[in-house]
Design a protein that fits this description.
Layout (H helix, E strand, L loop, with lengths): L1 E6 L4 E8 L3 E9 L1 H5 L6 H23 L8 E7 L3 H18 L3 E5 H7 L12 E6 L4 E8 L2 E7 L5 H11 L6 H9 L24 H13 L4 H30 L3 E5 L6 H14 L2 E3 L11 H12 L23
Parallel strand pairs: 1-4, 4-5, 6-9, 9-10
Antiparallel strand pairs: 1-2, 2-3, 6-7, 7-8
Helix pairs in contact: 2-3, 4-10, 5-6, 5-7, 5-8, 6-8, 7-8, 8-9
Bound molecules: 5'-O-[(R)-(carboxyoxy)(hydroxy)phosphoryl]adenosine (KG4) and zinc ion.
């Protein structure tokens, strides 16, 4: 069974084809970074317009790259949410219409389920059950995953998501959008231990996250400094250390609390090399195995949507003729396979 996946929830247009037998046949990604850079962040209306321009040409590129025709497809999956409503509507309208024209089922996919399942595209995928740490621009969650669609939310962010805190702190330090990877790069020049930032919500039980205070802490530290390049690097370093350590503490708690020995880390922030290094150490300490997607599938992409769509279609799940766009959509509302 071959499924085309379309991702358009934010600032990346991604398309891919996943085959139940042969795996991922191809994927193409177009990033809107240049488009939004002048504004210092994603401008939703510009994002939608660019998805309109790019989605169909990308699908054509993918087909010629894979040597496939539309008639070789068995289903069309698209990101139905959560995300920017205009951006979602583009992928949803194109995906749903294409499926209708071809007489194929359409599968609305939950963006975070896509992220969560992305490590399954790797050579040694994790077995169920596992703990998933989902860290993206819009979410910070710890989830107990018993099977596809069986998601118990163990911890959630009470304010800014991790990626969002990275982006806002980076902006405050004068770094260009997208700030997360820029801040991570600057942190390498920071002096370890020059500043120590708090580890929010680690002094009380529970697995929820709060990162907006850390962003304010970084701002206050910056304002009290001489605002030179070394100050910025030191702040970036301290900020990243605090985030990484906080995430590691919560992951350890989740593993110990559930007794599980597999940890999946996914979403844009899982590309962060300091986070990977720290969680690999945690895995060794806790005798747990840690799984990540390959770097290009940490951030938004079509492959994870094609894969998740394929799994759901294989289980007989697909949608009626409506075009589904759900800007807010809880992972726990998904049906089990
Ligand atoms: O998963 P994603 O592409 O989009 C959402 O679903 O939100 O995640 C994007 C987020 C952004 O906030 C970006 O700054 C962050 O992931 N990010 C990083 C790194 N790479 C991407 N944050 C820290 N370090 C990185 N290397
Ligand atoms: Zn994402």
């Amino acid at each position: 069974m071959r499924v085309l996946g379309i991702e358009s929830s934010c600032d990346e247009t991604g398309v891919a084809i996943y085959d139940g037998q042969d795996g991922l046949l191809g994927h193409v990604l177009y990033s809107q970074i240049k488009l939004h850079a002048d504004y210092g962040g994603v401008v939703p209306e510009l994002a939608s317009r660019d998805h309109i321009r790019k989605t169909i040409p990308l699908i054509n590129q993918l087909l010629s790259q894979t040597g496939l025709a539309l008639s070789d497809l068995d289903g069309v999956a698209y990101t139905a949410g959560p995300g920017l409503v205009g951006a979602l509507l583009v992928g949803a309208s194109i995906g749903r219409s294409l499926a209708w024209t071809l007489g194929l089922p359409a599968i609305p996919v939950h963006h975070m389920e896509g992220h969560l399942l992305a490590p399954m595209l790797e050579a040694e995928p994790p077995a169920f059950p596992f703990i998933a740490l989902l860290v993206s621009g819009g979410h910070s969650m710890l989830i107990q995953v018993d099977a596809v669609g069986q998601y118990q939310l163990l911890g959630d962010s009470v304010d800014d998501a991790v990626g969002e805190a990275f982006d806002k702190t980076a902006k405050m330090l004068g770094l260009p959008y997208p700030g997360g990877p820029e801040l991570a790069r600057l942190a390498e020049q920071g002096r370890p231990g020059h500043y120590t930032f708090p580890r929010p919500m680690t002094d009380r039980p529970g697995l929820d996250f709060s990162f907006s205070g850390l962003k304010t802490y970084a701002l206050n530290t910056f304002n009290a400094s001489s605002k030179g390049d070394q100050d910025k690097a030191d702040i970036a370093h301290a900020f990243q250390e605090a985030v990484v350590e906080t995430l590691a503490i919560k992951c350890r708690r989740a593993l110990q609390q559930t007794g599980l020995q597999r940890l999946v880390v996914s979403g844009g922030v899982s590309a962060n090399s300091r986070l990977r290094q720290r969680l690999d150490k945690l895995g060794a300490d806790e005798r747990a195995r840690v799984y990540y997607p390959r770097l290009e599938f940490c951030t938004d992409n079509g492959a994870m949507i094609a894969y998740a769509g394929h799994l759901r279609l294989q289980a007989g799940q697909h949608a009626d003729v409506e075009i589904e766009a759900r800007p807010r959509w809880k992972l726990q509302e998904l049906e089990a396979l």
